[in-house]
Amino acid sequence: MKHVELDKLDQRILAILQQDGRISNQQLAEQVGLSPAACWRRVRALEESGVIIGYSARLAPERVGQGLCVLVNLSLQRHTIDSTADIEQQVSSYPEVLQCFAVTGNSDFVLRVIVPDMESYDRFLNEKIFTLQGIAQVNSNFVLREIKNTQTLPM
Question: Does Acetylation count among this protein's keywords (predicted)?
Fold first, then answer.
């Protein structure tokens, strides 16, 4: 994917939208010092170029009954293109998996999993993770408290 050159106005627009994705175009234009039409064109161009990939609401997991966060390290038995792709596809289909990273080091994948409680996590492991073909080892790290959790990129 090609790097998109961003000027200072684009960077300011992105910083504001990351903090408040529901801001009106009028308010955004005022904050960055553009006319509403010029601001709208810039936001539209950022969307079309793939810099802005979507808008969403951030939820408090514990408020919606999803209070247990687990970082799961998966190690593979073998490293073939087909087996790795199959595991990636399977893991990506699990709604409990919010993020999946292919990593270097002691494991091959790190998953960020959110479930209601320990019983649900046990069920997730037994019904989903342990049924995956080609997994050599699973290591679970339970999050005690969240220090920082952001999707905001520095601009």
Answer: no
